[in-house]
Amino acid sequence: MNTGTQHEAILEFPDNRLLIDLCGEYDRNLTDIEARTGVQILRRGNQLAIHGDPESQADATEVLRALYERLEQGRDVSSGEIDRQFRMGEDTGPESQMEMFSGGKVEIKTRKKLIEPRTDAQKAYVQSLFANELAFGIGPAGTGKTYLAVAVGVNMLINGEVDKIILSRPAVEAGEKLGYLPGDMKEKVDPYMQPLYDALNDFLPGKQLGKMIEEKTVEIAPLAFMRGRTLANAFVVLDEAQNATSMQMKMFLTRLGEGSRMVITGDRTQIDLPRGVASGLADAERLLTSIPNISFNYFTGKDVVRHPLVAAIIEAYEKDAETP
What pTM was computed for the model? Predict the structure, then answer.
């Protein structure tokens, strides 16, 4: 980096085509970085001139270099990746060097895309999913608990580490009575299971997913359907676990069989159980925290990776709950 004046930093990029991708359509990536750091970025040929205070210049420079390096590796640069860079920076610390992740990067390969955690909490969560037979992901909506768990399950399935994926959630209405639903059993429960279908569709081609569901390599079923089964050589996810009763949670946890991994995700602030019915997720936290090979991973509003307004909304509700 060459410094022209005290408040200007110059970055030079050898490949002009990659620089175009770095800037984004209508320079939207540069606009995003400017908004996050408070600098002004001007493009001059194959150079970017960064104007601002030294600390902000350094932040923008680090992110731009990391994103350009990503493009050199043949990867894309999206708004999500820019967000990840600002949240986490470069994964160069010794804690990120795990044998299961090439080059020290925490990433999940699926049939359709490569998934990378965007926050430190997400990174720790993904690592625990690979390292533990039973893992809990607890936190507010939009923090990637279920999405990352399903991604890890797809990764293990295509790598032959498990024989099937089983996704489940309690069929509990979210604060409203929907009445009797028409159709057969699948048509009745599918509306409750739709978020799980959405996640799978992100990672597997449609025809392949359809065939896997038909062959029972991928199962999506209400929690009640787990009773009496032993789930061996499977990657099992229980979503919305805050809506499982204590008895249901015990039933589900004791389904764990040889060669299987189990992930339980939930949000303690969105319990839809009838008044007076204890949440099985709370009981599991209380009873299982001291058992080896069971990990508990927690998320906050800072880990929300949906629209920025979602994080602000969650933080507002959290503050209100803390007010006497």
Answer: 0.71
